Amino acid sequence: MIFDMDLFKDKSTQNDYGARGAKKITLGKIQAGKSYVPSGLTAAQFDAKRKADKAKKDAGYKRNVAKAGVFEDYTAFYTKVRKSPPSTISSTN
């Protein structure tokens, strides 16, 4: 019977939010003469750019995972904003 199949029983947390950090995802190596390198860049420059892009992406993902499950009460925010005095707009004309 196919009803008793649980495709995620061995790795039940693989689709949880933040699970990407536990996976062994690596960046491929750029080898001069063998790998694609955009014109105008050397293999070392392209490799450095890819590493910087990956670090930026990982930092953003880590920041978002840290915010997971944390919610701001919009009602409290809205009432606080409504109670504050309105800003005055001054014109120099």
Short description:
The chain is mostly helical and 93 residues long.
Describe this structure in words.
The radius of gyration is 24 Å and the shape is flat. The chain contains two helices and no strands. By secondary structure, it is mainly α. The mean pLDDT is about 80. The termini are far apart.
Short key terms for the protein model shown above:
single chain, mainly alpha, 0% strand, 93 residues, 2 helices
Percent strand: under 5%
Structural class: mainly alpha
The DSSP helix count reads: 2
The global form is flat
- pLDDT averaged over residues: 81
Kindly provide the radius of gyration, computed on alpha-carbon positions and rounded to a whole number of angstroms. Answer: 24 Å
The topology string of helices and strands comes to HH
Distance between the termini: 80 Å
Low-confidence parts:
none
- Largest sheet composition: none
Helix content: 25-40%
Number of strands: 0
Spell out the blueprint of helices and strands:
Layout: H1 43-67, H2 74-83
